[in-house]
Amino acid sequence: MSDQHQGKVVEANPAAVGSEHHADDHFSHHIRRYLFVFYALLFGTLITVGASYIPFGHRAINIGVALFIACGKGFLVAGYFMHLISERKMIYGILAFTAFFFIGLMFLTVWSFADFPPFTTTH
């Protein structure tokens, strides 16, 4: 195999040709994965919209179902688009640390609603 390049004969490297084919396979694998996640997110959105029309008996249950679906979609975004699914233990430690303090702050916020100072007016 040889190619003419500006009057010079250039031999094609078979290993380079094989690596180009491997690179194409590598990218097509990732594109397929991203498309799968995209379709899963679209499906999750349709499920969320569909669930909003189902009367579960109480508004809090409807909100809980929507949040459950949103957590699944958030996992897909964080895991695949932000590449957290293949990260190391330190990233998971930082993520757990952040989640722990977020839940703690949300608990303190909800708890403070029951502990108003004296002479506080509520609407």
Brief characterization of the structure:
This protein is mostly helical and 123 residues long. 70% of the residues lie in helices and 7% in strands.
Please tell me about this protein's structure:
With 123 residues, the protein is mainly α. The protein has three helices and two strands. Strand 1 and strand 2 (8-11) form a beta hairpin. Helix 1 packs antiparallel against helix 2. It is flat. The chain starts with a strand and ends in an 11-residue tail after the last helix. The relative contact order is 0.05.
Strand proportion: 5-15%
Distance between the termini: 83 Å
Query: How many strand segments?
Result: 2
Structural Rg: 26 Å
How many helices does DSSP assign? 3
In spatial order, strands of the major sheet run 1-2
Q: Give start-end ranges of low-pLDDT stretches.
A: none
Q: What characterizes the major β-sheet? A: 2 strands, antiparallel
**Oligomeric state of the chains?**
single chain
Shape: flat
What letter string, H or E per element, gives the SSE order?
A: EEHHH
Class computed from helices, strands and strand pairing: mainly alpha
Q: Give the helix proportion (percent range).
A: 55-70%
**Arithmetic mean pLDDT:** 82
